[in-house]
Amino acid sequence: MAYTEKVMEYFRNPKNMGRIDNPDGVGKVGNKLCGDVMWIYIKMGKDEVIEDVKFETFGCAAAIATSSVVTELAKGKKIDEALKITNKDVVNFLGGLPPIKKHCSLLAEEGLQAAIEDYKKKKSASQT
Fold it and tell me: What pTM value is reported for the model?
């Protein structure tokens, strides 16, 4: 299985790795077949802009690289824009993934969406 140089770069030197203290939203997703687990943490700024986003991933090189890329793509975007980020965007950014690893990019997309949904639920609950 061959990874692109960009996948290997993001695996070796991931961006935004770690946890956010008191995040506004947390998304946890996993794949039972391969065992990958991904947490995406978001901190919101003014006008519902994602001010900070970090990840923790237990998984293969592709899982770590896609987690890192989705955080890069989401940072600084409004919620509506961030929700439009797809696994295809992640794969394209990385210059491709082996077919057997495409599910990692889907986990990254779902993790970001889950973090945003968690934020929306918390915000809605605090307004009642």
Answer: 0.94
